[in-house]
Amino acid sequence: MIFKTISSLFLIVAIVCILDLRPQQIADDVLKLTVKKQTIRDQARALRTGKKKKTIGQRLLYVQTSLAAMGRESKFAVVVCASLVLFVVGAVIGVLVKNVFLAPTFAAFLAAIPFVYVRSSLSHYEKHIAEELETTLSIITTSYARSGNLIKAVQENIGYIKPPLKEHFSAFLGDVSFIADTKQAIRNLRAKVDDDIYHEWCDALIQCQDDSHLNETLQPIVDKLTDVRIVNSELESLMASARMEYYTMVGLVVGNVPLLYVLNKDWFHTLIFETPGKIVLGICGIVIFITYLFMLKFTKPVSYKG
């Protein structure tokens, strides 16, 4: 069994070398396989429900665009290749322990590790963006309400804006100078940050170009960023407690396996070496993996949805 497994691994490596597969090429091929063109039915459902269907391909695209925004676009190919390699390693581990029912679980768990790590980095980046958005929009809104001139408000505060928002607002000033269309420049600025409150602020800003009295609506929109930050601060300890409880329960489930060896060796032998026991372990592994994904989903920071 071990010889066959090692032979299969060498065969995979040989195929990669013969085809001269590069990390970037592999990442592009994975995106082509997973990203499907949105149909009219999907677009209609999104407009009707206000929710976009998140497929694996769309999540991969989100990771790619987020890494590009962080200046780490080249890391995406490394993450995808590492995930594929770990997927194979997980499947091999399942075969080596002579439990094919655990092979999918090991493969999925190991394949998810690079994306979980990247998602953690993106969470810190998104938190940083939210903090900078709150500060930046606040000072620009205050200056705009005082002067009534958006371009002047951005110019006098551009030195206080921190990256990456500074580059976006610098580009906004450049757009205003070249295209001489403030509304279109705001639309270009709107597309550079994926945040519902920020989009609402930009939409209100466009309306202010037709009616200057509407600039009073900008500050309440900015206040929503403060409200979201306060809510996340209050929920942070609660979410950490929920995650710790989940990890404790998983530890108890996994810890029961060696504990069973001490309590009853016959039951342990049945669980590890007999087919019914292997099936039980496989089911437990799948349940742990699925519940882990749900735990990540339900304990992530809250965000405003307009």
Describe this structure in words.
With 306 residues, the chain is mainly α. The chain is 80% helix and 0% strand. Among the domains are: 1-96, no CATH class; 128-228. The protein has 13 helices and no strands. The chain starts with a helix and ends in an 8-residue tail after the last helix.
Strand content: under 5%
Radius of gyration: 25 Å
Distance between the termini: 56 Å
Structural class: mainly alpha
Overall geometry:
elongated
Uncertain runs are none
Proportion of residues in helical segments: over 70%
Task: Note the total helix count.
Answer: 13
Task: Please give a quick description of this structure.
This protein has helices at 2-19, 23-34, 40-49, 56-69, 75-96, 103-147, 150-157, 165-179, 182-190, 196-208, 218-263, 265-273, 275-298.
Write the topology of this structure.
Layout: H1 2-19, H2 23-34, H3 40-49, H4 56-69, H5 75-96, H6 103-147, H7 150-157, H8 165-179, H9 182-190, H10 196-208, H11 218-263, H12 265-273, H13 275-298
Tag the structure with descriptive keywords.
mainly alpha, 0% strand, 306 residues, 13 helices
